[in-house]
Design goal:
By secondary structure, the chain is of the alpha+beta class.
Length: 150
């Protein structure tokens, strides 16, 4: 199965209800980079009036999922992508809309080669969460795996 990056937003909004709930916007999705935006929505504010930490986590994790599905879409018939663990650092207070930019931490070809060898590859996706002024509000790393189908 091949994943068309132009329809990634619709696909994830259908498959992952939280994407739809938070009204995440898919700005750019390629096998090299995924950029998602969380609009400023009072229903998802924290006690300071900015985006709640949980909403920012979901934004960043969703960006990582978008790049994984786009980069490894051709492997979906033989393996399922799964997030293994995640770590997030909140750097600066965010106010207003925030954007998450995800990048693969290993070349996709290396990951697929491990899958071809019958292994269950793990690979990091790094995500920067930025405010409208460009300041980095948070950084997240999600470790993903491609679990071979039985």
């Amino acid at each position: 199965m091949t994943v068309d990056s132009s329809s990634m937003g619709e696909m994830l909004a259908t498959a992952v209800p939280m994407v739809r709930t938070l009204n995440l916007e898919f700005v750019e999705v390629t096998p090299e980079r995924a950029v998602l935006r969380l609009p400023d929505q009072p229903a998802y504010h924290n006690h300071l009036g900015g985006p709640h930490a949980g909403a920012m986590f979901t934004l960043a994790e969703s960006a990582s999922g978008a790049i994984v599905l786009t980069a490894f879409g051709e492997q979906l018939s033989r393996a399922v992508p799964l997030a293994v663990r995640a770590e997030i650092d909140y750097k600066k207070v965010a106010m207003g809309p925030v954007t998450a930019t995800a990048t693969l931490g290993r070349p996709a070809g290396e990951v697929v080669a491990e899958l071809d060898e019958g292994r269950r590859p793990e690979f990091p996706v790094s995500i920067a969460i930025t405010r409208e002024d460009g300041a980095v509000s948070g950084e997240m790393t999600v470790i993903w795996t491609l679990r071979p189908n039985s």
